Amino acid sequence: MIGAGNEENVSQLLLRKISENTDAWGDGLSIMLTVLTILASIVTIISLLGLALELWKRKVSTERQELIIKDLVRHLFVNAAIMEVIRMKMEGQWEKMHPLEGVFSRFCVLDSDLQLGQIRVKDKQYTKLHSLSLFLRNYNIMSQLAEKHFNDPKYDPKEKELELDDLLGRTVRITDEFLELGKIAKLNINNDSIREFITLHYNEKKAKRQKSLPDIRLSARTGNRAYYDDKLNLSEIYDFCILDRYDDIRVIPFKARSIRAKILSFLEA
What we know:
The chain has helices at 4-90, 111-114, 126-150, 157-184, 191-208, 227-230, 235-246, 259-268; strands at residues 97-99, 251-253.
């Protein structure tokens, strides 16, 4: 039979054991919660890093899309300026003169740009992107035809002038289409951003140019010829681009055909 003293000792022993076990379990739980907290923090950090990386990739991709469109518009801008030079140098003598071979061929857009595959649009807007690709392909075809026709002394002079007007109209139309595509694709492509891009490009070119521009008075432009003046407010830069290209674009007279060439032409007819 356990005495009162022994009962008190047993009770104290049990209480001490329970206290020890409780403290040990509490310490274990505390450690487990600490580990879980650390793991949760690591997962959160990894998720945030993944999100940041995705946003960075998307930002770079968006910037590249904008650069593609802006540079294509700049290319069209230069083409339009060269057409102005051709018009000035031909002086209406379409049947006697022609630009040096290769001028119109350089109007063509690169094959890699024809597909516009790097521009992201929603499925419903793909038709717009595809349509613009077709416009560019047809632009290349018309540029190649102009190259052929303008170097053919037998081609109708009036048709040459009409072709130049048509090619300029296509240049303007495609520029407008690119501005619309930028809006659809939610890119920073608009009149202001295009004007800023082209102005920066030619300001740098002005700074590097060593010789003075030709001292030529440019005539007033109307219709499609005034598109870059009116739509994009680039009159000063457009004037510079025309004069900057003036000496580079050569227009030469057709060579007098030999008697043999005339006979062959007569026989072919």
